[in-house]
Specification:
It is a single chain. This protein is mainly α. 52% of the residues lie in helices and 2% in strands. A hairpin with a 2-residue loop joins strand 1 and strand 2. Bound molecules: heme C. Heme C binds next to helix 5, helix 7 and helix 8.
Length: 249
């Protein structure tokens, strides 16, 4: 029994001293009983390599590659590009004039193609919150985005295009920026479309081109004549009881 206990204790100590050494610090390479995947064949950054002619693991970047990402190097590359462009044409890229005032109007040509681009990008990026007509009643309202505001008030109607550009680029309060997703030209296109939405909800007869004015006026008068006979059966059906009650009275 004593011998058995002795062997048992010895085995315990041996097991712990052989397998229990992982995790303690050694200057020697560890003894791998279960190597797991600690040691793999791989190319390391700045490692040496016999396969390639220049004997480097690192492969040069393919010419024309544009760095994307948020590391400071790529951010710097982007900013340098951006700064050149910005210095060249601050109105287009920042929505501000050289003297720091908001741009009024558009630094790009507003034409049908721009409007179509604006409509497309607005539908993709803005409609979920601001809604198709820009009243701020987008689908996200049902899911808790309650602070989206409507474009249809005087403050936003009178707001300089450049300030709206800045909001799209950097966001404002609870709205995040879309500068990374929309190129400057696309942002101006969205603003042109936003202006169209504002006009559509706040139009006067003077906004209607003359050739269509007559047509519109006629169509406005026409339903008034049409609706009387169309409304009559409804009212008589609905008011059946009341008319009966009136007639009996
Ligand atoms: C995720 C929802 C959301 C999306 C998408 C969104 N917005 Fe907004 N937007 C908001 C909210 C919320 C506000 C109100 C911010 C605040 O509290 O002032 C706002 C405010 C604004 C304002 C008014 C800023 C001011 O000065 O008061 C403008 C202009 C605007 N958005 C334009 C856009 C355009 C253009 C897009 C598409 C590129 C867009 N928004 C996409 C939520 C959104």
């Amino acid at each position: 029994m004593r011998i058995f206990l002795g062997i048992f204790v010895f085995l315990c100590v041996a097991t712990v001293s052989i397998f229990g050494i992982r995790g303690t610090k050694f200057t020697e390479p560890p003894l791998y009983v279960f190597p797991d995947m600690d040691d793999q064949e791989k190319y390391r950054p700045q490692g040496e390599n016999t396969f390639y002619q220049n004997r480097m693991d690192d492969r040069p970047v393919v010419p024309g590659t544009i760095a994307r990402g948020s590391s400071w190097e790529t951010a710097k590359v982007f900013n340098e590009d951006f700064n050149y462009a910005q210095a060249d044409n601050p109105e287009l890229y920042t929505g501000k004039t050289r003297s720091g005032e908001w741009v009024r109007g558009f630094p790009v040509e507003v034409n049908h193609a721009l409007m179509e681009l604006g409509q497309q990008k607005y539908t993709i990026f803005c409609q979920v919150c601001h809604s198709a007509i820009g009243d701020g009643d987008g689908i996200t309202k049902q899911y808790g985005v309650a602070t989206t505001l409507s474009y249809h008030d005087d403050r936003l109607r009178d707001m300089a295009e450049g300030e709206i550009f800045n909001t799209i680029t950097h966001g404002k309060n609870t709205m995040s920026g879309y500068g990374e997703k929309l190129r400057p030209e696309e942002r101006w296109a969205v603003i042109a479309y936003l202006r169209a939405l504002q006009r559509a909800q706040n139009g006067t007869l003077d906004d209607v081109p003359t050739p269509f004015k007559k047509e519109l006026l006629e169509s406005l008068q026409a339903p008034a004549q049409d609706s009387t006979p169309a409304d009559e059966p409804e009212t008589t059906q609905e008011d059946d009881s009341s008319t009966q009650a009136e007639s009996t009275e």
